[in-house]
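Morning - flavin-adenine dinucleotide inputs below, output right after.
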Amino acid sequence: MAERESMQYDVVVVGAGPSGLSAAIRIKQLAAEQAHEVSVCVLEKGSEVGAHILSGAVLEPRALNELLPDWQARNAPLNTPAQQDRFLYLTRNRAWSLPTPPQMHNGGNYIVSLGNVCRWLAQQAESLGVEIYPGFAAAEVLFHTDGRVKGVATGDLGIGRDGTRTDRYQPGMELHATQTLFAEGCRGSLTKTLVERFRLREAADPQTYGIGLKELWEVDPSQHRPGLVVHTIGWPLSADTYGGSFLYHLENNQVAVGFVVGLDYRNPHLSPFEEFQRFKTHPAIRTTLEGGRRTCYGARALSEGGWQSIPRLTFPGGLLIGDTAGFLNVPKIKGTHTAMKSGMTAAEAVFDHLRAGTGPEVTDYPHRLRRTWVWDELYRVRNIRPSFRWGLFGALAYSALDTYLLRGKAPWTLHHHPDHTQLKRASECPPIAYPKPDGKLSFDRLSSVFVSNTNHEEDQLSHLRLKDPSVPVRVNLALYDAPEQRYCPAGVYEIVRDADGRSPRLQINAQNCVHCKTCDIKDPTQNIDWVVPEGGGGPNYPNM
Ligand SMILES: Cc1cc2nc3c(=O)[nH]c(=O)nc-3n(C[C@H](O)[C@H](O)[C@H](O)COP(=O)(O)OP(=O)(O)OC[C@H]3O[C@@H](n4cnc5c(N)ncnc54)[C@H](O)[C@@H]3O)c2cc1C
Ligand code: SF4
């Protein structure tokens, strides 16, 4: 193995999303205030900050107000105040207006491109002296001999498909730190290894997830209502599948349209991608999009487990912040403000810890977090998502009771099951016939991946690893009709056969992967391991 170079920092942050950047900014603010130098470096696997950020997004500015109260003067890209909320229940041809639940009132919030907000946060961080390295994927956690986290190593470049070095070969870099902050977002790949090694989930419920698919449209100006926020439930999903849609009218005639499906869905014939495509053809939705143009597509998993799924947050030498720990508020469909606040709280605890030099683990971070509004907010809504086990109507009734009568203080907590255990056998479930895409409102996967600007160096080891190569056919195809062909929003997994229709095998088109992490979550036997590809690979979202 070639010798890797190393660099030493006080703090290394893995991931330049809202949580990682907020943490980096807060540490540097404290360092400046207290004249105590702290070196901070942020690694980002996207080709630039924001390239892998996909969100709705309606931003609740609470954490931002605390972090950078003068964000307006600093020209933060929060240009569209939310003006009006609509909450619709859809049947095949009709839309019924429902009262907007209190958590979904967006007065005081802003419709943003979270990718652009992150680009702006990165500028603020750099102006405070944070070093940010986009295009560098943290591929491995490093440990001291006593078991403390020592830092991370970026992946080697130029390891060909067959595992041998190509002429592009460059060994990875080691980044050593007193504390490493993991801010990888939902289902972080290094976080997954840390959860196992330090048994961080021992006292928590399993994390649960949804897949969010999103398109950005430039609509006919006559259809554009800047500041309008629309959410729908119901059609095309059946009442036993959790999910719904969003339409956010941003600036410049843009509308973000998206669809979320809970990954605890049971019918292996279901395709979140196709549900999204047919959703757009509903009469209440199509009028907004008709005559417009789709400019971007992408997908990303989101953490839905909430309060009862928060793992242990610290371990010797490091800690978890943001969605990789799982601070998303599901009834609000918002995780940015909580991700930022967790990063800021961790930063304050880390800064004091570095100054005091007290032991390897920042045990004060979870205590401090419990005293913030994040904890209270997540605690109050903890039973809403798991109540969907009673179907859409049971959950709506329970949520009304929990919110209005019990005010989130029910003397019980509903629990979660891991999503990958929820699929039924294909033979027990009705097949779903999806309409063919029309190329105007609805599209196929490949033309969609095209507008996600996804790109990976072709000659590299696949970043989608199968623990047992026989499972896709022996188990997944035999029992579940190969569900990875449908849940992957980028057409990465394909069952191919010989000309005579025999010898089925799984073909993995890894270069199409948009890094949503759904396969790592939903594969029924957890046989798929998503690891980072070469840094800079993946989608290049301009403003998602
Ligand atoms: C479809 C959808 C709609 C949403 N709508 C809203 C909304 O309207 N309002 C709201 O507040 N929230 C919304 N959310 C949630 C919100 O986007 C997240 O809660 C928030 O982005 C979490 O921030 P984070 O910093 O924890 O992670 P992320 O934003 O996911 O950022 C993580 C960053 O780390 C990088 N990274 C990951 N692993 C590595 C690695 N090993 N090495 C280097 N870099 C790495 C990633 O590339 C990424 O840039 C939505 C989410 C989705 C998917
Ligand atoms: S391969 Fe996995 S992570 Fe990549 S797009 Fe498909 S489901 Fe998402």
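Note: The longest strand covers residues 293-303.

O.
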